Amino acid sequence: MDRILIHRLAVFAHHGLLPEEAVLGQRFYLTLEARLDLREAGRSDDIAATVSYADLAGLAHRIATERRFRLIEALAETIAQEALATFPALQALTVRIDKPGAPVPLVLDGLTVEITRTRGA
After folding, report:
1. Which residues on neighbouring strands pair with residue 29, listed in sequence order?
2. Which contiguous run of DSSP H or E holds residue 105?
3. Exposure of 11 in the CB half-sphere (CA atoms within 13 A)
4. What residues are annotated to the active site?
5. Which of 11, 4, 23, 19 is nearest to 75 (CA)?
6. Cα(76)–Cα(115) distance, rounded to whole angstroms?
7. Residues 10, 15, 16, 20, CA torsion sign
8. FRET label pair with 78: which of 46, 72, 93, 99, CA 20 to 30 Å apart?
9. Facing residues of 37 across strands?
């Protein structure tokens, strides 16, 4: 299956369990891997035969910045479900959310949640 990849779309949002996260907010990075057949788009050079990466990124950005989630798992699930509902050409979508400022008392670069959802599954 062909892929459209959107790498590390930066968003500033207020997701997390702690009250401080709701107030202060933090940066998140969204990576999307859309799976779909791109043959017709390649042959026709027509945007109607694919999924606009600008529209897909915009949808993910809107969800991440206009809503608040306690879990980044819920954010990822919402992005995947809404993208599959919005873009009929998508066969599957992998959503990766990096939370570099995760408030854990350990030295780490960040935490990541990654899910894959497939149409009809």
Report:
1. 10, 98
2. none
3. 26
4. 99
5. 11
6. 7
7. positive
8. 46
9. none
Task: Report the predicted TM-score, pTM, of the whole model to 2 decimal places.
Answer: 0.94
**45: containing domain:** 2-118
The count of structural domains within the chain is 1
**Residue 80 identity:** A
* pLDDT of 46 above 80: yes
Radius of gyration of the chain (CA): 15
Q: What is the pLDDT of residues 56-99, one digit of tens each?
A: 999 999 999 999 999 999 999 999 999 999 999 999 999 999 99
Q: What is the DSSP string of 9-67?
A: EEEEE--SSSHHHHHH-EEEEEEEEEEE--HHHHHH--GGGS--HHHHHHHHHHHHHHS
